[in-house]
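Quick one, tokens below. Sequence please?
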């Protein structure tokens, strides 16, 4: 490794950290976790994202919540293209797959559907980040591992950033989960945003300045 290459890399990283967030239209495309199931909409992490952007960004961001409780990746494949055409988002935050796992759907089909949605968004001109999910251990180790690999596979094949487990620090903590053991409470929503924020902010900093 040459000193010049190392110096250039360090400078690039420092610039990325210091770059301002660029104004953008953001489409959150998820399931009940992002639809604020069991909560008031204003309590959900998506609304907290809008509030954070309003405070930290010099220019107004527009966050559109296209999430639907109970949505699977198969439903998402059908539902995403019209939303892309309507809103023309600069960034798509993909948070789907949990319901596929809870219903025991094929991990191979999960990976295929995730890839399709990512490619559709990329073809429309959107950047994409993906928020991954894990399933409870009672589904069996082999299925759980195959399920998690589906997100990694789709991420690698399309070159998009992946957060391996969106519910990190929340899942399994019954103080932060609703009585059903599946959906986060209002108290957990800031943690959800904190988990996703590094991926989101990094992509926003990469975007060209308006005009």
């Amino acid at each position: 490794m040459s000193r010049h290459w190392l110096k250039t890399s360090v400078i690039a990283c420092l610039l990325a950290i210091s770059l301002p967030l660029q104004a953008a239209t953001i489409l959150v495309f998820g399931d009940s976790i992002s639809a604020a199931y069991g909560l008031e909409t204003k309590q959900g992490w998506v609304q907290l994202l809008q509030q954070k952007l309003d405070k930290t960004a010099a220019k107004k961001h527009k966050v559109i919540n296209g999430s639907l409780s109970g949505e699977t990746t198969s439903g998402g494949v059908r539902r995403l293209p019209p939303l892309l055409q309507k809103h023309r988002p600069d960034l798509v935050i993909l948070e789907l797959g949990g319901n596929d796992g809870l219903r025991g759907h094929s991990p191979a089909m999960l990976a295929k559907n995730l890839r399709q949605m990512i490619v559709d968004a990329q073809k429309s001109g959107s950047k994409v980040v993906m928020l991954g999910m894990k399933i409870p251990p009672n589904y069996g180790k082999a299925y759980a591992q195959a399920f998690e690999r589906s997100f990694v596979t789709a991420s690698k094949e399309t070159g998009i950033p992946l957060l391996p487990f969106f519910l990190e620090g929340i899942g399994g903590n019954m103080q932060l989960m609703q009585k059903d053991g599946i959906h986060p409470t209002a108290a957990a929503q800031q943690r959800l945003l904190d988990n996703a924020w590094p991926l989101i902010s990094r992509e926003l900093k990469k975007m060209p300045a308006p005009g």
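The chain is about 50% helix and 10% strand. The beta strands are 25-30, 62-65, 91-95, 127-131, 162-163.
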